[in-house]
Specification:
The complex is a heterodimer.
Chain A (H helix, E strand, L loop, with lengths): L2 H7 L1 H26 L9 H12 L1 H29 L16 H4 L1 H25 L10 H8 L3 H28 L8 H27 L5
Helix pairs in contact in A: 1-2, 2-4, 2-8, 2-9, 6-8, 8-9
Chain B lengths: L4 E9 L8 E10 L5 H14 L22 E2 L2 E2 L20 E5 L8 E3 L2 E2 L2 H10 L19 H11 L6 H5 L6 H12 L8 H14 L10 H5 L7 H16 L5
Classes of the chains: A mainly alpha, B alpha+beta.
């Protein structure tokens, strides 16, 4: 085994992979949220459609997208491996677990991640598959904004999206600051700042995301 | 030392490492609230011996909170409801009539020897893999010949307060030994005496920790919350730094 694979396959290395891919997914969320928030201009989706077209056609963005999917898959596979391995480290479980020595969401990252994965499949089917693998958008039948309005006219997807955002919020609430701890970045000068930025990000981003389907369902944005 | 506390104990009984274990219930009467938790077990064991029954096996040694031998998982907490060792936990932390469930540390790397006693020699092997400094023999050096910043000395001392009891492993949902190992890596890497073996230490101790079958860290902070010595998870971040920087920069593979 080379020193690289040895390092990355150690328990610390697997966590490092989670941290680095997690932080790149956080960067993606910021871009995704920014682009989608263009619907709040409430101009019938004009600004949003421009931004979406740029994101869908620019070669640099499309290349980065490959990296994004690679990071996402790595985050999922590594997370599942850690979940499985860690579970085997206590073959006989406790009869009583007090559970008040840590937050429930920090102990449930695997569960929250799985919920996010289920949400992601539904979400990609709604928009990514439609815009990439059908000609609905490219042929000019519908704009992406109209597609959004159609999906969110139905209350079921709205509820699913809000639940997805709640899972995301808790996943980020632990994940953001945990990534820095894993990379060894725990410092009296920076850690309080990282923790507050992380908490702010974990609340703000899912809140903006959740506001989109709700606003479209209530016809505030049309 | 007679008292007026009456308790119901549910204790894990297991004959040896290979046999199946189960909970056994005992009614314990006349316990003083000034007894330590272990003294309460002594009272119960004396009774079991007088009834010619097998006493409950549990680890203990100094009984003053410094050796790290006691290891009971009490009502869902390692060392019970207070942030202290089991020997320093007093019966006044409970109420008469309480039912107390006592289990051994649960971890693949801490196999049960008997009843509540577990084998923690995996910790010894982690220490032996790199948790030391090599010192030449000869006269002791003058104590002040090596300048050490006060902050570093304090941090090293706080990490060195770890008694290796394994409560961190018992508390962790992954049975991870990161808090223990990181405290041992930290106490030496912070001091000038620890520099010579610094990279080797981080790499070897992490490798041994993984080989012993401890889990990875999820940064839940449960270990820090339960540690009787208040070891901080800042040490875990320090070990992550030490390990990752040693991996990328050491001249040799350890």
């Amino acid at each position: 085994m080379s020193w690289v694979t040895k390092t990355l396959s150690s328990s610390l290395g697997k966590k490092l992979i989670m941290a680095v891919t997690g932080l790149s997914l956080i960067a993606f969320l910021l871009v995704h949220c920014g682009i989608n928030a263009c619907i709040f201009f409430n101009d019938g989706g004009e600004t949003f459609n421009h931004a979406a077209e740029f994101m869908g056609t620019n070669w640099l963005i499309r290349t980065t997208e490959i990296g994004l999917f690679a990071g996402l898959i790595l985050h999922i596979l590594d997370g599942l491996k850690l979940w499985y391995d860690n579970n085997a480290k206590r073959p006989v479980k406790y009869a009583i677990v007090a559970g008040n020595n840590s937050t429930w969401y920090s102990r449930s990252m695997g569960l929250l991640g799985t919920l996010l994965l289920i949400f992601l499949v539904i979400h990609l089917r709604h928009f990514w598959v439609v815009s990439r693998f059908t000609d609905v958008i490219t042929s000019g039948q519908k704009t992406l904004f109209q597609e959004m309005a159609e999906v969110f006219a139905n209350p079921v997807p709205v509820v699913i999206y809000v639940l997805g955002c709640i899972s995301l919020a808790y996943h980020l609430l632990h994940g953001f600051q945990s990534a820095f701890q894993t990379m060894g970045w725990n410092h009296p000068k920076y850690t309080p700042f990282i923790k507050s930025v992380g908490a702010g990000f974990a609340i703000l981003i899912p809140l903006v995301f959740a506001a989109m389907p709700i606003a479209m369902y209530l016809q505030i944005i049309k | 030392m007679e008292g007026n506390m009456n308790l119901t104990l549910k204790v894990w009984r297991q004959k040896n490492a290979k046999s199946e274990g189960r909970f056994e219930t005992f009614d314990v009467k006349g316990i003083s609230e000034d007894m330590s938790f272990l003294e309460m077990f002594d009272v119960l064991n004396e009774r079991l011996i007088s009834e010619t029954k097998e006493p409950i096996a549990f680890d203990h040694d100094c009984r003053e909170g410094i050796c790290g031998m006691c290891s009971m998982y009490i009502n869902g907490h390692p060392h019970g409801p207070k942030q202290t060792t089991t020997c320093q936990l007093h019966m006044r932390s409970f109420k008469s009539g309480d039912t107390i469930t006592v289990e051994p540390w649960r971890a693949a790397a801490f196999p049960v020897i008997k009843d509540l006693a577990v084998n923690r020699s995996s910790f010894d092997r982690i220490i032996a893999s790199g948790g030391f400094v090599s010192v030449n023999t000869g006269n002791a050096r003058d104590a002040n010949s090596l300048p050490i910043p006060k902050e570093n000395a304090d941090l090293a001392f706080m990490a060195a307060a770890c008694i290796g009891c394994g409560a961190c492993v018992a508390a962790c949902k992954n049975a991870s030994a990161m808090l223990f190992t990181s405290a041992k890596v930290s106490q030496l890497s912070l001091l000038p005496q620890g520099q010579a073996e610094r990279q080797m230490r981080a790499e070897k101790m992490v490798a041994q920790m993984d080989a012993e079958g401890f889990g990875a860290c999820t940064n839940t902070g449960a270990c820090e919350a339960e540690c009787p010595k208040g070891i901080s998870i800042e040490n875990i971040a320090r070990m992550n730094r030490e390990y990752l920087s040693a991996s990328v920069s050491s001249n040799k593979e350890y």
